[in-house]
Amino acid sequence: MSSPRKILHVDMDAFYASVEQRDDPSLRGKPVAVAWRGARSVVCAASYEARVFGVRSAMPAVSAERLCPQLVFVPPDFVRYKAVSRQIREIFARHTDLIEPLSLDEAYLDVTETKTGLPSATATAEAIRAAIREETQLTASAGVAPNKFLAKIASDFRKPDGLFVVRPHQVEAFLAPLKVGRLPGVGKVMEAKLAALQIVTVADLRALALAELEQRFGRWGRRLHELSLGIDEHPVQPDRPTLQISAEDTFEHDLTLDDLEPHIRQLAAKAWAGYQRERERVARTVVLKLKTSDFRTLTRSLTPSTRPLSADELGDIACALRERVERPADSRYRLVGVGLSGFVDRDSYQAQSDLFA
């Protein structure tokens, strides 16, 4: 039997809001929402003072203000958040190269073997959290467990600024009382289906025979059974390949297709700036994303014979994709996005281009 992996899930505490409170002392101790104020805005992050009132990320800004009239709105500054995220990533890299970022503010780390020689995964987690506090003046919570999904659940147990450890012999007891909705992949629909079978907790799920789970849910039934026992063999995957680089914007007032060109070109420039950081791969496909005034999402894409070589070319192709939108001319749109996808290895792309030149 191989030894269990030692996995950390590190999650920054109210990251965007905490950065704003760190950089502006007048915001400390106040309920803060990182969002533009207005009917069309959503909350990107909420400070813990705001969460007391029920304010949460992804909530419409107007709903957040209704819950907390004294809420302080701060417009997001993703350039600053990305800079802090890079600082945190550098701290992780002192301990292991096996880092799988999930977003700017959270990541999995495999610390089965470390660069530092610290005696345990717990000691490594404590060292990382201490370094984050000292070097960024921010706090992070961490979960330590034998696999990724357990570490992610554990990191939420002592938030904010906490550490929770699930050792291999504790896995089944740790999971048993949890609601099945805490398991990865169990959303509201699946939770309701399980509730109809009198399955509310992980212990209830574990009590149902594997054969019955498979009969009802197919291969997903087997996966549910494995999760109920704490089994998950997915490794930490560093440097996951980029699927798409994009930029998007929501408008204060809905616009027609003809009105969108300056916005598309501005977003193309943003997406292109992000694409310039891709050193090893090239993008072949241009994507235009639209959201209608009635919240329908439309995407149009094109893989041209020659890939775009500048922000202007990207903007030209994205603007032209409007012609593929088969809707009445007076239709209006609340959001537009421009992206690059269809990534391939740069060397193989060049070799293929040379072959057909």
UniProtKB/TrEMBL annotation:
Q: Per the record, what is one GO cellular component?
A: cytosol
Q: Where is this site: Substrate discrimination?
A: Y16
**Residues of the active site:** E106
Per the entry, the cofactor note is:
Binds 2 magnesium ions per subunit.
Q: What is its EC number?
A: 2.7.7.7
Gene3D superfamilies in the cross-refs: 3.30.70.270, 3.40.1170.60, 5' to 3' exonuclease, C-terminal subdomain, DNA polymerase, Y-family, little finger domain
Q: Which family does it belong to?
A: Belongs to the DNA polymerase type-Y family.
Outline the subunit composition: Monomer.
Q: What is this protein called?
A: DNA polymerase IV
State the organism named in the record.
Rhodanobacter spathiphylli B39
Gene name of the encoded protein: dinB
